[in-house]
UniProtKB/TrEMBL annotation:
Coverage span on the entire protein: 6 to 172 of 301
Subunit details: Monomer.
Gene name of the record: era
Role this protein plays: An essential GTPase that binds both GDP and GTP, with rapid nucleotide exchange. Plays a role in 16S rRNA processing and 30S ribosomal subunit biogenesis and possibly also in cell cycle regulation and energy metabolism.
Stretches for region G2: 35-39
Residue numbers spanned by region G1: 9-16
Annotated GTP binding sites: 9-16, 56-60, 118-121
Protein name: GTPase Era
Native organism: Photobacterium galatheae
Superkingdom: Bacteria
Length: 167
């Protein structure tokens, strides 16, 4: 029961904050070299019965400003079969064309994707959120849709349960 879990999303949706929640003090491996391997290992959560390796998968990124990144992205798409599950993180307060781009890339992979709607602690957002979710779930068959607060920890236990079940 060990495998790669990709955390995917445009910049600023809360990926790093979520990772800290998921691995916290249990963080045992980090890689400071982003594009030297097919996956950049972000953190490892080792528990009784399972080990989740959280990775950053370049092929699923929209941060393609540099040519080298674009080239690596092409290479990375061949490695997607290594991923057991994708955590697609969005900011519940703000849906952008970049999110759309990530969604379209994910749809092509055929991987199981869990939509994590982050920043639910921001009350103002809740009213904007639900029509979007409806729209998103029509575009893609998510394994689950989980509202979370990476910052305060809400819903993270649900995410961990889903991860455990997928390994
Ligand atoms: P990344 O670029 O996807 O890695 O995003 P970060 O983890 O760096 O977070 C971007 C910003 O969003 C930071 O200012 C975080 O404090 C904030 N943020 C992340 N998660 C939450 C959340 O659950 N609630 C709120 N209100 N802010 C959050
Ligand atoms: Mg980050």
């Amino acid at each position: 029961h060990c495998g790669f879990i990709a955390i995917v999303g445009r910049p600023n949706v809360g990926k790093s904050t979520l990772l800290n929640r998921l691995v916290g003090q249990k963080l045992s491996i980090t890689s400071r070299k982003p594009q030297t391997t097919r996956h950049r290992i972000m953190g490892v959560d080792t528990r009784d019965g399972y080990q989740a390796v959280y990775v950053d998968t370049p092929g699923l990124h929209i941060e393609e400003k540099r040519t080298i990144n674009r080239l690596m992205n092409r290479a990375a798409s061949s490695s997607l079969t290594d991923v057991e599950l994708v955590l697609f993180l969005v900011d519940g307060t703000q849906w952008t064309p970049d999110d759309e781009m990530v969604l379209n890339k994910l749809a092509k992979t055929g991987l199981p994707v869990v939509l994590l709607v982050n920043k639910i602690d921001n009350v103002k957002m809740k009213y904007d959120l639900f029509p979007h979710i409806q729209e998103l779930s029509e575009k893609m068959d998510f394994k689950a849709i989980v509202p979370v607060s990476a910052k305060h920890g809400g819903g993270v236990d649900v995410v961990e349960q889903i991860v455990r079940e997928s390994l």
